[in-house]
Amino acid sequence: MSKTQLRWLALTLAAVIVAAGALLWVNSGSDGPRVVTEDRVVATGGAQLDTTLYLPEQTPAPAVLVAHGFGGSKESVDGDARELAQRGFVALTWSARGFGRSTGRIALNAPDAEVADVSRLIDELAKRPEVQKDGDDPKVGITGGSYGGAISLLAAGYDKRIDALAPVITYNDLGQALIPNSATTEPLPGSPSANAFAAQGVFKRSWAGVFFAAGMGGAGFANPSAEAAEPGSDNDDQLDSQDPAAAAAGDGGGAPQGGLPPGRSPGGDQGMGPCGRFTEQICAAYTELATTGRASQSTVDLLRSVSPVSVTGRITQPTMIVQGEQDTLFGLDQSDATARQIAAAGGKVKVVWYSGGHDGGRPGASLRSQIADWFDFHLRGRGSDPGTSFEYAVQGALRAQGAPNVRTITAPSYPGLNGTATERRPVTLAGPQQTVVNPPGGNPGSITSMPGLGSVVAGSSRLASRLAVDMPGQVARWRSEPLTSQLLISGASTIRLRVEPIPGQPVPEDGVVLFAKLYDVSGDGSRTLPASAVSPLRITQLPAEVTVTLPGIVRPIEAEHRIEVAVTTTDQAYAVPSQPAAFTVSLADNAVQVPVVPGTRSAQTPPMFALIGIFAVIGLAIVAAVIAAIRRRRADDVDESLVDVPLVIENLAKEYPGGLKAVDGLSFRVEKGQVLGLLGPNGAGKTTSLRMLMGLIQPTEGSIRVFGHKIYSGAPVLSRIGSFVEGSGFLPHLSGEANLRLYWAATGRPAEHAHFEEAIEIAGLGHAVRRKVRTYSQGMRQRLAIAQAMLGLPDMLVLDEPTNGLDPPQIHQMREVLKRYAATGRTVLVSSHLLAEVEQACTHVVVMHRGKLVAAGEVADIAAVGGEATFRVDEPDQAASVLGELSGVTDIEIDGKQVHANLDGTPRSKALGALVAAGVAVEQAGPRRRLEDAFLELVGENKA
Amino acid sequence: MSTNNVHTDPTAIGAMEEAASHEHLKVQPDGSVVGYKASRTLRLRVELARQLRRRRTQLMLGLLVLLPIVLVVSFEIGEANPNRRQGGFVDLATASAPNFVVFALFVSGTFLLPMIVAIFFGDTIASEASWSSLKYLLAMPIPRHRLIRQKAISSGILSLFALLLLPTVSLLIGVVWYGAGEAVSPTGDAVPFGDGVMAIYAATIYIAINLLWVAALALFLSVSTDAPLGAVGGTVLVAIVSQILDQITALEDLRNYLPTHYAFAWSDLISTDIDWSEMTRGAFSALCFAAFFGFLAIRKFTRKDITS
What we know:
- Chain A: This is ABC transport system ATP-binding protein fused with dipeptidyl-peptidase.
- The structure holds two protein chains of two kinds.
- By secondary structure, chain A is an alpha+beta fold.
- Chain A has five domains: 1-30; 36-411, Rossmann fold (3-Layer(aba) Sandwich); 424-601, Galactose-binding domain-like (Jelly Rolls), CATH 2.60.120.260; 640-859, Rossmann fold; 865-928, Alpha-Beta Plaits, CATH 3.30.70.
- Chain A has 25 helices and 39 strands.
- Chain A is elongated, with a radius of gyration of 49 Å.
- The model of chain A is unreliable at 234-271, 398-403 and 457-462 (pLDDT under 50).
- Chain B is mostly helical.
- Helices cover 65% and strands 1% of the residues of chain B.
- Chain B has twelve helices and two strands; from the N terminus they run ααααααααββαααα.
- Chain B has a two-stranded antiparallel sheet with strand order 1-2.
- In chain B, α3 runs parallel beside α8 (144-178) and α6 packs parallel to α10.
């Protein structure tokens, strides 16, 4: 039984695995709604743009332009465009000037170049019948990451046909992004991640280099390819993304080797000078920056004219600004400025900070779907209003099952947009005035980030914090006391610093360059630089007292951790002055002001179907239980005429699956005071009958009545039966005595009804009754089981092969026990395959064979005397005639060499004497044993 | 006498005869003897006494007490990586007592806790069958629906006790070693100590609800086989296969139908704003599986022929 069950279980499991595999295989082939693409080259003033139009299943539909990042091409946003088309938008991608197969020179989103190109593309869209229009005005949205985010903002500023936009990880002012200065003496805006945005910044050398290289057609480090972690997202994708090889194997757009599409040689038709495909103007500005580390006013103006900051004052379209928290290129301060400027212009702004960025990864599936929701609502009024809330992701340190855990916190609006100010908590720092030194040539420098490799490095927080190295002598630090509770920094903290020259030491003519950082210091002193971010600052006049905006981060600082603000003179990612210098730095105000944006966790409301389902399942279970209870309350089936008859079996049959009839048409009756022997060879159906008597097995046919009550499983009348069927059943870890007591306790009957003492004495185990049952011999268990059956002195005792395993004296005692027990007016039913056993122990007998009743009656009746005798003789015929002549002798039968006769009162010795006198040789003379005849016949048949 | 000097004193037979001839059992209308009542059979106290005296039960509970101690000792030995924010949630475990408990629940959640529930429920009827004592329980008679109900309830009490024992011992040990600090969630949220303790016990209750499917499946296998190991092993095997399938991200939303999919939804409780959606889904999923297997178990047990 159990083996087949286990096999069945294994089969089911195998089936589940196969089904899962099949689904996996089928799933990998499905693509969702069908999307039709159309490639075209659009000629604009000064360039031939390579475009692809993605048409959804249902048109007309609003259009969304999807712009690619720096160093990419229209292929790198193929996935995003396809996703939008599947969401029911007409999507348009194009390779910007100088990228992919498009011709022209890169002007960094100049109004008369790239921005004009977008207007030209919208003209083309307006001509398409698939695009939904209001009169002549097509419904158009625009989105894109990084360089593509900037063109989104710029195009929305210049072309009012754009109805909604969602710029992702982009800059507000390229000048401030590449040449930032975070020190100011002016008051700061009230938004959470505002940066000083002061002039005369420090050149972000390595990122600028990466960018310039991307424009040369080289590596595409500039854009993240892996997805950032999201709340509730599954671990595996992100785990892969931390593996550089896996990232490289991803889509070509952002992968390090994928800068150029196949078939196009670097330079190509453009002619590869030192400027690559950049316009002369841009090239000259970069060359100036890269060689001097400083920007002239014309360069600053040029960068500003191609930056969104030049048009944000005109953007009134609904804007969803998505910025990354892991971004040393375009930090949270850039989106902060854009949000403020658009809100001031009257645009509707929603700000989302997600856990990725240029160092972290591109938006994940749920954020992309949020962007599509934005267009759904603002382009065609579908879905619920996404509103103007502010959401930010908090990345926890705990990794359940390898997944970086992210939760999203939602605030009603972005603080600082409507005259409100961000809450700032002061955290007191302690530390003296410290001297810092700028080494000649700015080398060795502190290390904080690895531009372009950020996503690889930041994926492992362990690696990222190891990267942050401050050189001794170049750093000043101030630390807080350990925090008493967690502090969630959400934005850019500010601090006031005083920088003073050391008398006699030179002050560089370029001013003092410093890098301010905020460290999370754990209880044991190890330091982590959140987001690997630093705030560079340049102070031109010493002594100075300035407000420094630290990098915009989202970071929970745990209790027991400290906040440390460090100021260094060097950073390898920036161009630092080469002249040696030394000066002192101290705190002008001993508190760092930490921005805190309270909000609620973006919790989904509990799904209704599950809530209702829980109650439905519980309700169903209760209903099922009630129905089952009602059905169990069957009327007790009593035959009043039989209430004094211990056992009546009528036409009982049991057929096992497979057609084996273990019991077939068995009927017999047992009266009080009888010791009934159920006799039959092994396999006769004795045990099956007894199991049916105990309600363990459901009969196929017929009925069993005990004291008139019909037997079924759990019938109350079973409490009048004490049983021992097919072996003992004890808890092996308990003693014999404990077993008996727990058995009785389980019946729930009063302890005084049990008669423990007498039962234990009957078992006669002596001191062994206190040993564990597992140490018992077969015979000891047998006796304990019989004692258990006698607990409560039941009206009927059912014993299956009770003498098995007992030795002859014990068997003798057992017979005595059974006889005397029955003599008290009780009934004993004993099964046995031994004829002698039944003959000696029982008053009545039922003989069974192959499930059928063979004989039944009093043992004395069937087995012995009553006048019948058997003679074994040499001349049976002669013997029969001799016996026939004796008076009163009847029923003479000849059976081989035996002659049976009913002597009826005639002494056997007299009959024997007559036979001998007649000259018959008598070998044997005795009572006739009908039972033995029958039984031997059966056993013989059994053998055959 | 041969069999270990075991014999019945002849006077014992006399005493038995004496007692039997004086006592004649009275009978109730339903045919049972006076003193018998189906609703008094196999009371929980008795069944718990039967189970608690087993070495297996004692070992299991002992293991749960020992586990937090083993964890603390391992942390003390392996203090190689001092930065607690770096390596993931293992490093957060030593941050505070609630975090230590969360860690203990995490490490035991995949295998140990389902296995304990599987043992208590899978063994309960199959072991009686393997000792042959099941037939005597049924012949007392304990009605079958009552037997399976009492067995299930007592296994449930033992499982719940075991599930509560682990966080309680971990909490005590955690307070002694790591102090009563804030609980830091997997997503970096911080919860004060008092709320953290509440969350831990709420999480334990969620785990108990979520493991209902294990209980019901184990009970079903327990009434289907006479081999206790088969019932326990079969259940654990299903749990493992479910966890493996849950790792295959390509199965996407189909994984939501796996019984183990929401096993760790309780981690949402360690938070300042609690998101109940995953836990609601998890409870629903567990209840559905539990109802299905529970129904099968009861149906099978009340109808089957007891042949062992």
